[in-house]
Design brief:
Blueprint: H1 2-25, H2 29-50, H3 58-71, H4 77-95, H5 103-122
Helix pairs in contact: 1-2, 1-5, 2-3, 2-4, 2-5, 3-4, 4-5
Length: 124
């Protein structure tokens, strides 16, 4: 059961990243950024779940991840910052109708999401 949950979260992360790429290719940059964030979010949740940490909110995932893996382990602070920034970008993409992201910003978000996910998958 426990390992299934971690695997499911990692699978969901990869699905969200694939969806982000499809949205990007169809010029849906705000939506691509949103899905890229969720790809990172599910990877972060998977690592937390491995340590039996189950935050209830997005902010909780960010804070617990920062404490558990960045502060107390050796997860790259620079890569963690990708997650923090993309969380804000996702909020803007989903809720701020006057903010529109362009192709370069979306490509950057997807690239950073992939880096974050790979760091999570390879983290010991």
């Amino acid at each position: 059961m426990f390992l299934d949950e971690v695997k499911n979260l990692l699978d969901e992360s990869l699905e969200k990243l694939k969806t982000a790429e499809i949205l990007f290719e169809n010029d849906r940059y705000d939506d691509a950024i949103s899905r890229a964030y969720y790809a990172m979010f599910y990877s972060a949740k998977a690592l937390l779940t491995e340590r039996k940490i189950h935050p209830k909110t997005h902010k909780g995932v960010k804070n617990q991840f920062g404490m558990e893996f960045v502060k107390n382990s050796n997860f790259s602070v620079d890569i963690f910052r990708f997650f923090v920034q993309l969380q804000q970008d996702r909020q803007d993409a989903d809720y701020e109708v006057l903010i529109k992201f362009n192709r370069n910003q979306a490509r950057n978000a997807l690239d950073r999401a992939e880096i974050f996910i790979n760091e999570c998958k390879n983290f010991e």
